Amino acid sequence: MAGHAVVIAGAGPVGLTLAGELALAGVDAFVVERRPNQDLAGSRAGGLHSRTIEAFEQRGIADRFLAEGQTAQVAGFAGVKLDISEFPTRHNYGLGLWQKHIERILAEWTRELGVKVHYGVEVLGFSQDKSGVDVELSTGQSVRAQYLVGCDGGRSLVRKTAGIDFPGWDPTTSSLIAEVEMTEEPEFGVHRGPFGIYSFGKREYRIRDGEVEYADGGPVGVMVTEEHAQHKNEPTLSDLSNALIAACGTDYGAHNPSYISRFTDTTRQADTYRNGRVLLAGDAAHVHAPDGGQGLNIGVQDAMNLGWKLGRVVNESSPESLLDSYHAERHPIAARLLRNTMAQVALRRPDDRIKAVGDVIAELLGMEEPRKKFAAMMSGLDVHYGPEEGHPLLGRRMPDLEVTTAEGPVRVFTLLHRARPVLLNFGEPGWFMFDAVDITAWADQVELIDVEYVGAWDLPVLGEVDAPTAVLVRPDGYVAWVGNGTTEGLAEALTTWFGPPAR
After folding, report:
1. Which residues cross the membrane (predicted)?
2. Of 133-137, 278-282, 424-428, where does mean pLDDT reach its minimum?
């Protein structure tokens, strides 16, 4: 029986991001994907939000996505556009880029890191014990691993086999999304029909001189709400044609589909993201309506949170209990997401009373404070892992400051490219050495860097905060400790996140 550190079920954007994070940690990951090849990725998701672009910037790959997509203000709530251009981030926008391209770029990145994806292979079952997991594959092989991570979607076999409950709400609406050729030219854009929303858009485009140029011919992107909620059968061209006729009076001669998928407002969340040596990420852990385009983004951020922690546990740099923080931090984030997508679904129902509620919401979101709060939530820039007390930076994303080191100017996110924790000293060089904590005891785990920075520290929603003298930054870019002229609490933070000091 072959042995691996981690088996990842699913090579969509979530599984690939996790595989890349583990590779950066030097951890062997065996990745399986039931699709025969990556070309069948489809385009269920249409872009990246600001915080996800930042996460890729922390690994030095954001430019790959930006080179192929279209930047725009994509954050919104219940049809109300939320401009984040004034937020203090280098990426104060979203990115229009279809999932198949996002996945292709991630696949190229993981290949560069030495990751091999086994396409046409899926997990059929597994059993776990105290030391590992025996994973049964569709090839007839069994693989032994220390951990198994289910990134295998909303119908996750990993979740079901692990016996993890998936409570929530059944669908009340369903929609079809497809790429299909049409003999007639539809009216491109988003429209409201008799029982929902439909839209048309050319999916293939390129950017020239800052303008979007759509390709001639080729498939048309279609999204159409179905008259009756459905969620069991795989959608067909006939289903798409019937839905278009009901919504538009014609199917525009739809034929030769390259991709048809159905999504609903089913809303469910796993009770726990971990059962022993089995973990869940992405849609395997939470499903919801696509309103706000948040699904792929929250899944990638799940993987960024889990990857470095799992890497440290596998490498025996941190105790296994570190994995418990994955559920503790990410479960509340998804719970909030489920709530805001359910609200958005309710607000788009074709009912005069609901429309009145929507008008009130739109009026509220026209005010500065509610607009900033919702814009930060929808773009992922307000994620806060706590605690509530202490310095406002604690548990929040580290700003991508341009600092000066002994080697010269550098951006903070550049210091995170290797996915290692860094302790940034903004005070006098060497002041740590005069305090009670022996920083050198963690020298093999955490990189101490003396840096200089002049200017205000600005955070989305919170605004300017007092500049600290030192900051401990986790590999995923979140602040684990803040110092103000003293190292009080530093040893505890280092031990909690990066294990006990070296002997």
Report:
1. none
2. 424-428
pTM: 0.91
143/311 Cα distance (integer angstroms) = 19
Q: Tokens for 110? A: 């993981």
Record the tokens describing residue 7, joined without a space.
């088996």
402-498: CATH topology: Glutaredoxin (3.40.30)
Range(s) within the chain of domains with CATH label 3.40.30.120: 402-498
Q: How far apart are CA 274 and CA 163, in angstroms?
A: 11
End-to-end CA distance of the chain: 36
Say which amino acid occupies 196: G
Query: CB within 8 A of 77, min separation 6: which ones?
Result: 292, 340, 344, 361, 365, 374, 378
336 vs 65: CA distance, rounded Å: 27
What is the second-level CATH architecture of the domain 174-264? 2-Layer Sandwich (3.30)
Write the single-letter amino acid at 349: R
Alpha-carbon dihedral of residues 131, 137, 142, 145, nearest 10 degrees?
-30
Q: State the span(s) of the chain assigned CATH 3.50.50.60.
A: 2-46+98-169+268-346
Residue pLDDT, tens place only, 23-71? 999 999 999 999 988 776 666 677 899 999 999 999 999 999 999 999 9
Q: Say how far apart CA 376 and CA 389 lie, in whole Å.
A: 20
Q: Which secondary-structure segment (H or E) carries 197? A: strand 197-202
